[in-house]
């Protein structure tokens, strides 16, 4: 998909359902065809579709692959690589594929999807997108767990199967998916990155494949992934699944500092910066003029607690920290009002969103916060830290947050930078990071469930903080199985109410795409998934 789950940059979802000021595309003279452009990304964690769940990697893969479905202006799924997607009962889904070829000229078949999905679903492969195959029959046999004590941690057991029993290639162009239970919104789910196919040869040597992925999208690799430097792609001449690129090539340049990328943009040495750094938010509109752009996004920025750490295991401690943060002040001073305060656990762009669902816990009230922290027995050592990735432009707002916690709770708070977003994800995933840490989420498909399930469900794909609540899990699952969208939303809202009591994370901000481009390109647009629409960009 165009979206990725975890986002590395600091600027993030507008509250209105209309486009923000500045627009997402240029008007005027028709652009020149051909040529190439460059844009910034963070170093990807992976370039295997079933394991690419962060913003840098998914931006690259959005050019190399075409999803089964895309989304229209109303967030409704529209067919892309799929010819049709149908189900008589919302449980058994039949997917017919359009004719397509891999970048090496071989035909794309149903087996290519089945093989890739089975690899992602097989527990021992530890794919970051493994969670998304959990609705398919046979997933539990591929991902069993052994209880280690009644309330203790669980460990992986030996899988009883290596393939999903509910996944079949009926013929070269037909995939049949049988879910464990009906899921009316499953068509939208299929738009996500993890449901891209991979050629059969990729599974024989994934390490080699990842250095130069072969896809079926509008662009193909031009050489190998040059780690920490760049990824180059070029237009695929035989692309037939959608609009062909208007340029010959794209160079994704890997930056570890957003300000360096922005300075390169000002010097016309970089063509697109997908997030304007917070430090220059006040001057960028004048410096870029009509090349300063904003558009609606789906990003949700928050700070997560390692709930498995005794220091943060009491919800009262978590609520007290949240109540001691003045979101509005940080947005005004640091972000120059380019974002909106978040007091809910899902984005305003999805159906079922409600304002202020976390209630008192998200209300700035230093006196009440101090009292609540005292009732909880305080924090061990009176010290806390907030981790963040140095390549995402977070230092300023994290420092501002720490300053507020020092002032309002009397805590010693420090900002702790990890060089790369991919590295931060790895550390928190393996529970090797000690302390609170910032996270950001971009929807994978337009649904409340896409925020609630991956971020907060037990074993959720991006639940890096160990949160688990059986009632929450049950409500999310009941929502998936609901017969109507209204019934589903009711269940999901009940689940969100549980988050307000437990506070596994602190909602901070909803943002928007705030980006810019050089004088060399035009028609630069970013979508709800925080990605540049690569095929629309033209040379000026």
Which helices and strands occur, and which strands form pairs?
Layout: E1 36-41, H1 55-64, E2 69-71, E3 77-79, E4 82-86, E5 92-97, H2 110-121, H3 139-142, E6 145-147, E7 154-156, E8 167-171, E9 174-178, H4 186-189, H5 200-204, H6 206-211, E10 219-221, E11 230-235, E12 249-254, H7 258-266, E13 272-273, H8 284-288, E14 292-295, E15 300-304, H9 315-323, H10 327-333, E16 340-341, H11 366-375, E17 383-389, H12 395-409, E18 412-418, H13 421-429, E19 436-441, H14 448-456, H15 470-481, H16 485-502, E20 505-510, E21 513-517, E22 521-522, E23 538-539
Parallel strand pairs: 1-12, 17-18, 17-19
Antiparallel strand pairs: 2-3, 4-5, 5-9, 6-7, 8-9, 10-11, 11-12, 13-21, 14-21, 15-19, 15-20, 16-20, 22-23
Helix pairs in contact: 9-11, 14-15, 14-16, 15-16
Structure description:
This protein is an alpha+beta fold and 540 residues long. It has 2 domains: 36-258 and 518-539, D-Maltodextrin-Binding Protein, domain 2, CATH 3.40.190; 298-511, Dipeptide-binding Protein, domain 3, CATH 3.10.105. Helices cover 27% and strands 19% of the residues. It is built from 16 helices and 23 strands. The strands form 7 sheets. Strands 16-20-15-19-17-18 form a 6-stranded mixed β-sheet, sandwiched between helices. The protein has a 4-stranded mixed β-sheet with strand order 1-12-11-10, with helices on one face. Strands 4-5-9-8 form a 4-stranded antiparallel β-sheet, with helices on one face. Strand 6 and strand 7 form a beta hairpin. Helix 14 (448-456) runs parallel beside helix 16. The radius of gyration is 22 Å and the shape is globular. The protein starts with 35 loop residues before the first strand and ends with a strand. Mean pLDDT is 91; it is low at 10-30 and 149-153. It holds the Pfam family SBP_bac_5. Keywords: Signal.
């Amino acid at each position: 998909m165009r979206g990725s789950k975890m986002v590395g940059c600091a600027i993030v979802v507008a509250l209105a359902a209309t486009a923000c000021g500045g627009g997402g595309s240029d008007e005027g003279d028709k652009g020149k065809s051909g040529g190439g452009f460059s844009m910034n990304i963070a170093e990807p964690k992976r370039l295997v579709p079933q394991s690419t769940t962060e913003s840098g990697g998914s931006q690259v893969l959005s050019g190399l692959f075409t999803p089964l479905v895309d989304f229209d202006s109303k967030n409704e799924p529209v067919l892309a690589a799929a010819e049709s997607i149908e189900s008589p009962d919302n449980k058994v889904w039949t997917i017919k594929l359009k004719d397509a070829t891999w970048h090496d000229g071989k035909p794309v078949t149903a087996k290519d999807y089945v093989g890739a999905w089975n690899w992602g679903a097989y527990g021992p492969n530890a794919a970051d997108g493994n969670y998304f195959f959990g609705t398919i029959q046979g997933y539990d046999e591929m991902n069993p767990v052994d209880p280690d004590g009644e309330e203790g941690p669980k460990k992986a057991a030996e899988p009883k199967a290596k393939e999903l029993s509910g996944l079949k290639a009926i013929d070269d162009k037909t995939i049949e998916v049988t879910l464990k239970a009906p899921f009316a919104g499953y068509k939208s789910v299929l738009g996500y990155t993890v449901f891209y196919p991979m050629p059969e040869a990729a599974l024989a040597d994934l390490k080699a494949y990842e250095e130069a992925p072969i896809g079926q999208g509008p662009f193909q690799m031009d050489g190998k992934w040059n780690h920490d430097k760049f990824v180059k792609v070029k237009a695929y001449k035989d692309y037939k699944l959608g609009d062909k690129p208007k340029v010959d090539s794209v160079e994704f340049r890997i930056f570890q500092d957003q300000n360096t990328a922005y300075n390169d943009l000002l010097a016309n040495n970089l063509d697109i910066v997908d997030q304007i750094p917070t430090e220059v938010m006040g001057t960028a509109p004048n410096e870029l003029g009509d090349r300063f752009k904003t558009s609606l996004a789906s990003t949700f920025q928050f700070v997560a607690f390692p709930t498995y750490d005794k220091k943060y295991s009491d919800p009262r401690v978590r609520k007290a920290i949240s109540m001691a943060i003045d979101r509005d002040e940080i947005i005004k001073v640091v972000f120059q009002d380019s974002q909106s305060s978040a007091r809910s656990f899902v984005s305003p762009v999805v159906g079922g969103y409600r304002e202020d669902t976390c209630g008192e816990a998200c209300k700035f009230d230093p006196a009440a916060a101090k009292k609540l922290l005292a009732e909880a027995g305080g924090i061990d050592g009176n010290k806390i830290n907030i981790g963040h990735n140095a390549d995402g432009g977070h230092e300023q707002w994290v420092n501002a947050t720490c300053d507020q916690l020092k002032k309002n709770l009397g805590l010693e708070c420090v900002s702790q930078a990890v060089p790369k977003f991919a590295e931060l994800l790895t550390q928190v995933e393996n529970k090797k990071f000690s302390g609170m840490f910032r996270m950001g989420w971009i929807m994978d498909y337009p649904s409340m469930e896409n925020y609630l399930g991956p971020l907060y469900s037990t074993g959720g794909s991006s639940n890096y903080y160990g949160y688990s609540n059986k009632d929450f899990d049950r409500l999310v699952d009941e929502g998936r199985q609901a017969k109507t969208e209204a019934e589903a939303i009711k269940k999901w809202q009940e689940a969100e109410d549980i988050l307000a009591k437990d506070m596994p994370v602190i909602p901070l901000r909803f943002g928007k795409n705030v980006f810019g481009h050089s004088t060399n390109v035009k028609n630069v647009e970013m979508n709800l998934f925080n990605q540049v629409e690569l095929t629309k960009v033209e040379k000026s």
